[in-house]
Amino acid sequence: MSEMRRVTAICNGSVIDHIPSGAALKVLRMLRISGKNSNPVSLVMNVPSGKYGAKDIIKVEDRELTQEELDRLSIIAPHASVAIIRNYSVAKKRTVEAQKELVNVAKCTFSNCITHGNREPQSHRLTVISVDPLQLRCHYCCRTQDMDAIIDNLL
Amino acid sequence: MADDLITMDDLTNEQIEALLKDAEKLLPAAKGDVYLPLLEGKLLGNMFFEPSTRTRMSFETAMKRLGGNVVNLGALASSSVTKGETLFDTMKMVDGYCDVAVLRHPRQGAAQYAADACDIPILNGGDGAGHHPTQTLLDLFTIKQAHGKLDLNVVMVGDLRYGRTVHSLSHALSRFGANLTFIAPPALSMPDEIIEDLKASGANITVSEDLVSNLPSADVIYMTRIQKERFPDEDEYQKVAGIYKLSRKDLKDVKESMIIMHPLPRVDEIHPNVDSTPHAAYFDQAFNGVVARMALLCYLFGVAIPKEASQ
After folding, report:
1. Confidence band for A30, pLDDT divided at 50, 70 and 90
2. Do A143 and B113 touch (CB under 8 A)?
3. Nearest by CB to B113, which of A119, A122, A137?
4. B229 touches chain A (CB under 8 A)
5. Are B183 and B177 spatial neighbours (Cβ–Cβ below 8 Å)?
6. Which residues in A lie closer than 8 A to residue B128 (C-beta atoms)?
7. HEC string of chain B?
8. Which end of chain B has a smaller Cβ tally under 10 Å, C or N?
9. pLDDT tier at A4, thresholds 50, 70, 90
10. Closest residue of A to B83, CA-based?
11. Nearest-CA distance from A99 to chain B in Å?
12. Is the predicted pLDDT of residue B195 greater than 90, yes or no?
């Protein structure tokens, strides 16, 4: 089975690998990839992984993910990597880079934070306190973020 | 000091000590015995989006005792906030009108948010259940006045979860080597992130629910009001309302030098029969709001306190 491809190779696009098992749908949401996009998307979940036991993989055709887009994934997929595919070959490889601050990635999980005020225009800023495990604090209210709840606050 | 004062992290220990010394020098001017127009021509914006008596009035008094002037946001009902204006827009306007602004707001993080929007210095006058650093300056001044030092046994009592004064004060006192005892019911215990920060900085912390057994060793009892306005519902408030009360009969075994502080307003945490004991420091504490804020404003504008100020 390991020798057989679960999804066919793509000609051009991005392969996002090492997504934590079960998190692929959240990754699609973070990258704003929905059924409304015209790009073909393939997704496999819970495939065996030497490093992590199990993982998800996403293949997005005809779209090259940027480093900035990849870094947004640090909240849910800190070990994710992206292979940029051109003409069936890997042209570039990228990994999630640890950020000092996540800007406009997610809204603070504390409901009384000023950023939950109506139409307040300034950026949502979460300071990275530790990378592994990921710990975040709101730049404004200083509250430690609820990492389970933050998935619902992705921007 | 950074241009803004949002949390006590914006001040070094040396800056805090310098401010406390300046506050001492400014006492005659704060009482009106000496007129010191050091801030003539300067304008402070008092931006209070939440009720306040002491913080608002003491900032206004401080500015006017120093010859400066003050404009107030006024009642929310008569401002554009009721028309849906954002805090960002309101503060951008104040940024143009004033030389410095004090902000009190019900939402946590509002002061940092305003500071990021403005070029003028922003002083946090209380942001939701966040911080209240200018209160801490006057609290430190009051403790130093009474004891001459800050490395003491300080017992904080009541609403430690939503009480912004104790958040800022515990940060500051831990940096000066105080032993901190936090007394609160579980629902109102000190927030985890503050405990984590205090422990990381090596603070000596004790957590308890029992006030009486902690009274004899205390040098300072810092009482706080259970803040009804911060509770999501009335039932939750009623479960803890009135849980800690001090009256004269509770003070039999306390140290002679022990002082009782309270950021005020009080409800029933301190019985009026405590007011006439030598332990009651809360009214002096309220007055010290003027002198501590005078020192802070002079510091912000880079104005040295002249020697004759204390003569």
Report:
1. confident
2. no
3. A122
4. no
5. no
6. 112, 141
7. CCCCECCHHHCCHHHHHHHHHHHHHCHHHHHCCCCCCCCCCCEEEEEECCCCCHHHHHHHHHHHHCCCEEEECCCHHHCHHHHCCCHHHHHHHHHHHCCEEEEEECCECHHHHHHHHCCCCEEEEEECCCCCHHHHHHHHHHHHHHHCCCCCEEEEECCCCCCHHHHHHHHHHHHCCCEEEEECCHHHCCCHHHHHHHHHCCCEEEEECCCHHHCCCCCEEEECCCCHHHCCCHHHHHHHCCCCCECHHHHCCCCCCCEEECCCCCCCCECHHHCCCCCECHHHHHHHHHHHHHHHHHHHCCCCCCHHHHC
8. C
9. low
10. A118
11. 20
12. yes
Amino acid in the structure at residue A30: M
User: Number of folded domains in chain B?
Assistant: 2
Q: Is residue B3 part of a domain?
A: no
Q: Residue B288 in contact with residue B23, Cβ under 8 Å? A: yes
- Domain assignment present for residue B231? The answer is yes
Q: Which residues of A touch B192 (CB under 8 A)?
A: 144
B145 and B263: one domain? yes
Structure tokens at B229: 């306005």
Res B112: pLDDT? 98
Asked if the structure places residue B202 within a domain, the reply is yes
Taking one residue from A and the other from B, the number of pairs with CB-CB distance under 8 angstroms is 67
Q: Give the integer Cα–Cα distance in Å for A142 and A9.
A: 45
Q: What is the rounded average pLDDT for all residues in chain B? A: 94
Q: Which residues of A touch B112 (CB under 8 A)?
A: 114, 139-141
Spatial separation of the C-alpha atoms in residues B90 and B94, rounded to whole Å = 7
Helix (H) or strand (E) holding A25: helix A24-30
**In order of start, what are the domains of chain A with their CATH numbers?**
13-95 (3.30.70.140), 101-153 (2.30.30.20)
pTM of the model: 0.90
Phi first, then psi, for residue B266 (nearest 5°) are -100, 160
Residue B241 lies in a domain: yes
The predicted pLDDT at position B185 comes to 92
Domain span holding position B138: 133-286
Q: Cβ contacts of residue A153 below 8 Å, gap of 6+?
A: A106, A107, A108, A109
The single-letter DSSP state of residue A28 is H
Name residue B90's beta-bridge partners: none
Place of tokens 């046994």: B153
Q: What is each CA distance from B96 to A91, B101, B118, B219, in whole angstroms?
A: 52, 11, 9, 45
